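Pasting as-is:
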Amino acid sequence: MTHRSSAGSAPWRTIVTIGQARWTGLIAFCSAAAITVGLSFVADPSQAAFELPAGEKITNATVVARAIPDKEAYELYDPKIGKNFDISKFWMRADLRVRYEMRNNTCFGSAMAGNTFGACNSFNGQTSASGTPGKANESYALQKTRLGFGYDVSPDVNFYLELIYSSVWGANGQQGTPVQDNQRTNNGQNCQNSSAACFGNGGVLGVRAGYMLIRNFAGVENLSVKAGRQYVVFGNHSIFGAFDWSNTGFSFDGIMLQYSTKAWDSWAGWFRTSESDLGQGNPLGALQPNLPVTTTPQTGSTNSNNGSANIDSDVFLFYNQIKSVPGFVIEPYYILYSNRYNSGDNRNQGLGTPKHSNQTRHMVGGRIEMRKGNFDAWSETIYQFGQMGDDGGSSAGYGNQKYLHINAWATRNWIGYTHYEWDWKPRLAFNFDYASGDGRANCTIGGNTDCKTANTFENLWGTNHIHMGYMDTIGWKNMMKPSINFQFRPTKNDHIEIWATSLNLANTKDNWYRATQTVYVYSKTNNTTRHVGNELDIIWTRFFMEGKLSFQAGYGHLFAGDYIQENLGTSTDQDWAYAQLWMNF
């Protein structure tokens, strides 16, 4: 028995104190060891209290760390501007646009068909007009803001990141719902009632570009590499365009190589346009599939990608520009669009569905542009060939077989004259565009023909707004249009343009496609009319603040043609107008 007198209690307290000290020391030792080990991974090795041969440093850094050039330590607490940063090498640029747009009689006296693709009717093999009389008017305000940050690591190495804020004012869900009527959290996407994830302030904030640019790559003079998210723009934006009229525009994730000389330039690129087997933001592979796919094409059932690395889509390009002919630019090119999704994954609008799944499409094209004196002209022609699969309608038994043969082509031609000798610089130009269609385009969604070909031209990522009439009522697919364009500048800060266009279908059995490349009106199976209508556009542009700010207003009127009456049963003309402010610095 222990006697717990005040005198006898001292040894007990001593034993406890010694025990506490031992545990405290052990904990302290372990903590110090952990910190030391941690610092060996996160701290700059030259700052550690190790004894190495003079002038040497640790060479066995972790595999990730040793792949980072000039890697700096991650601060444990207080971040500091890195020693590698030089403010004189930093630069930025930005622009902001606000546009109000309205359109009356979007469906020419008919109501929208109620589908998500914006067609004015549906297709069920009809042989008569299938529009439903009603109203279809639109009006909205758009805002686009781009903010780019660049840093020149060296004369040959550049870093660039461009953020984009794209919003439709007030597009924040149902009116009067308190949770959704919140500009800050839900503007741009109905997050509460949507199964899709909401990112970046309700889906309005994103990254338009983020890449590294290396010139004279690997010591090869005039060879450059751009890797990351980037703009891809070639020629007159016919196949690859920035599409800046849009509130978002096009961006591509991939790698572009350029080799440049005084006489010619060449570009070679690979871009992944869709990825099914790795979800965005997953840190490693094999965690979660991304896009749903039809794993059993004949039944149309939709499931997650269950492990196929091949269900993706890519675009490969080889583009050239010859500059050695005085007054001319000549651009031959080859493009491959490889879509390896199942036949049923993207086919809802028939064989003319934009970026139809399960296709291999080769494109061989060329563009030539001439500018000499007062005259200018350019012509571009593209031929597309390959194979495509579709498992709809009578073709259900084909599954993922690519049994459809692609044989499509398109041409775009302009010739103009500018009278530079007059102060107003008037320019008169004539244009003719054509893109092939296919009378079997609806064979997999209820058409009355066999499926053998897929000859509707694929517009890919072109900027149709600047080519097809400013009302955006037709895309570069199954179309034929002559037009006349007149422009002049009454003052150095004003520009006026008048553009008249006749819109027609190339193949009367194929559909009428919007500038967005989706179906605008489904053609009846016995349609024989091709004249969609005549469009007249008038655009005024005024520059302010030494060209840093512009105001632009436009009006367009489409006089409905026989095709609209025959296929919708209504023929009310369409009106369109907009006004916008655009700032750039």
